[in-house]
Amino acid sequence: MLNDLKNAFRKPNNALTQIIIINVIGWVAINLIYVISPSFFKTFSKFLFVSGSLTELMFHPWTVLTYAFSHHDLLHIVFNMLTLYWFGMLVSEYLNSKRLISLYVLGALAGAVSYILIYNFFPGAKTGMGGTMLGASGAVFAVVVGAATLMPNYSFHLIFIGPVRIKYIAALLVLLSVFQLRGMNAGGQVAHLGGALMGYLFVVSLNRGTDLGGWIHYIIDGFTGLFRKKSKMKVTYRSKVAANAGTNYANANRNSVNAGNGTPDQAEIDAILDKISESGYESLSKEEKQQLFNASKKEK
User: Fold this and answer.
1) pLDDT tens digits for 155-213?
2) Each residue of 83-128: pLDDT tens digit?
3) pLDDT at residue 100, as a whole number
């Protein structure tokens, strides 16, 4: 079982599974510690759950992120992970795994900042907010709203209801959080709304050519690079491989043009699909998008 878990975690371009696995491991660890020693759990939680107190936050600044991988209640993690899976699949497929990670992290940070600001600068809102916050809800709301902003008319088939466009599902979840701001979990609802706003801004900015999560990609690449084995291949060999790949693509494109029908052949389509898998649909040039469109018309 442990080997299966490791293999699932290590698969490339598998950010969604990795995030879910980390959350599940966190939930198991937190509950084990709570059962074994409730007194130690109280101390331990300060190192994971984000506090509304600026003094506490000063000594545990990393909690603005770790809280989003921490759950205590079973229903809490089940709802968050199921929602993350449904909407995260769309983000991962159309924007790639790296951007799913950056959207999740930015949503978590936005949720924490929203909670801390409201807690400290609106004293009247402290009732029901509690002193600490945990759970992935803020990050999940960022993914939900991000997916709905990216593809508002995509539909999920809900049990007993049928197909429902995800923009309506996202709108309903946001409205529910607004309605519950005066409830027992006001702090959580504030985090939901902060994450939702970040999800919207993330996709809108991306459509305008700005990747808000670029700095996160840079940090992750730098960190993983420390543990990546350096290739023993010579630079000249890599250059030949790249040159051959470019030549093959150019030949495929030339063969398509020579065919005279304006429709790209299978080799060219495979190259475009590989590019989508690696960098997302938005990385395609106008010509590549047109080629993909022409191929889809041919299939019809």
Assistant:
1) 998 888 899 999 999 999 999 999 988 777 788 899 999 999 999 999 999 999 999 99
2) 999 999 999 999 989 999 999 999 999 999 999 998 888 766 665 5
3) 96
130 compared with 177, residue with greater pLDDT: 177
Domains in the chain, please, with CATH? 2-224 (1.20.1540.10), 250-299 (no CATH)
User: What DSSP designation does 62 have?
Assistant: T
Assess whether pLDDT exceeds 50 at residue 252.
no
User: At a CB cut-off of 8 Å and minimum separation 6, what does 187 contact?
Assistant: 52, 115, 118, 119, 128, 129, 130, 133
DSSP 137-172: HHHHHHHHHHHHHHSTT-EEEETTTEEEEHHHHHHH
DSSP 280: -
pTM above 0.85, yes or no: no
Buried b (16+ CB within 10 A) or exposed e, 180-202: ebeeebbbbbbbbbbbbbbbbbb
Rounded-to-integer distance, Cα 94 and Cα 100, Å: 10
CB atoms within 10 A of CB 179: 10
Q: Are 283 and 275 in contact (CB under 8 A)?
A: yes
